[in-house]
Design a protein that fits this description.
The protein is globular, with a radius of gyration of 17 Å. The termini are close together. With 263 residues, the chain is α/β, with parallel strands linked by helices. α1 (9-26) crosses α2. Helices cover 35% and strands 16% of the residues. The structure holds fructose -6-phosphate.
């Protein structure tokens, strides 16, 4: 596990974009797992000019998004598909056929649909680099507390914490989806490399629990302790409750000397 502690949310976005851009340059056909949400906006904002002015080519990249609200069609302004289109896809050159986002408008055969999403990931060759945010309750994707550590893509009922947190994206009085389709923890853990971004004090307890707490389904991000190649990029506020900050700094310094390719 590597942890980079950054001064502010902008630096978190910049560092994440640097790692994604390096992954694309090293393997132009890289398969990215993507997340939505406020935390990821800075990263997408940094990646766009790298494409537009610095020849970062996404033409062979494939993407698989983590999740989508159930009941929202692709063109719904609150759908994650719409978020991705607005904030990233419309401004880079990923071919539409290479973009995969769970379909929130399916109305039956959920299990079959979710199995086919898993199959699409497998057929593409698996995810090389998975981007994650984290919920205040420690969720990754929409794997709410008590999700099985071995879970696969499936329908998930959203917790009250999550629906409250997401209220800000919806107009007053607008109905907030209660369910989502999400990759499972087991699906996420199969990615070759994982990058988790967190900013702001509201994430501090979740970050401390995920990294320094016990492995528990009550904080699903703690399952990342099982993964061999996870990098957390957090700002000062999100990292404030970590007890071993000095150690993480030393690990990063030594990694830069001994195995710079990991960074
Ligand atoms: C979104 C997702 C969620 C978010 C998390 C943090 O695709 O999978 O796990 O990453 O809820 O959201 P923000 O960044 O809005 O605080």
């Amino acid at each position: 596990m590597l942890l980079a502690l950054k001064s502010n949310p902008e630096d978190v976005g910049r560092e994440a974009a640097r790692i994604v851009a390096n992954a694309v340059r090293r393997n132009p056909a890289v398969r990215l797992g993507l997340a939505t949400g406020n935390t990821t906006l800075g990263m997408y904002k940094e990646l766009i000019p790298l494409h537009q002015h610095d020849s970062l080519d996404f033409s062979r990249v494939s993407t698989f998004n983590l999740d989508e609200y159930l009941g929202l069609s692709a063109d719904h302004p609150r759908s994650f598909r719409h978020f991705m289109q607005q904030n990233f896809f419309s401004q880079v050159n990923i071919p539409p056929r290479n973009i995969h986002i769970p379909n929130g408008s399916i109305k039956s055969d959920y299990q079959q649909y979710c199995a086919s999403y898993e199959q699409d990931i497998r057929s593409a060759g698996g995810i090389d680099l998975q981007i994650l945010g984290i919920g205040r309750n420690g969720h990754i994707g929409f794997n709410e507390p008590t999700s099985s550590i071995g879970s696969r893509t499936r329908l998930k009922v959203l917790s009250k914490d999550t629906t409250e947190d997401n209220r800000k994206f919806f107009a007053p009085g607008e109905e907030i989806p209660q369910c989502a389709i999400t990759m499972g923890i087991g699906t996420i853990l199969e990615a070759k490399r994982i990058l988790l971004l967190a900013t702001g004090s509201s994430k501090a307890a979740a970050i401390a629990a995920a990294i320094e707490g016990p492995l528990t389904a009550s904080v699903t991000a703690s399952a990342l302790q099982l993964h061999p190649d996870v990098t957390f990029i957090v700002d000062q506020q999100a990292g404030a409750l970590l007890k071993q900050q000095d150690y993480y700094r030393r690990v990063l310094e030594m990694t830069a000397i001994l195995t710079p390719d990991r960074l």
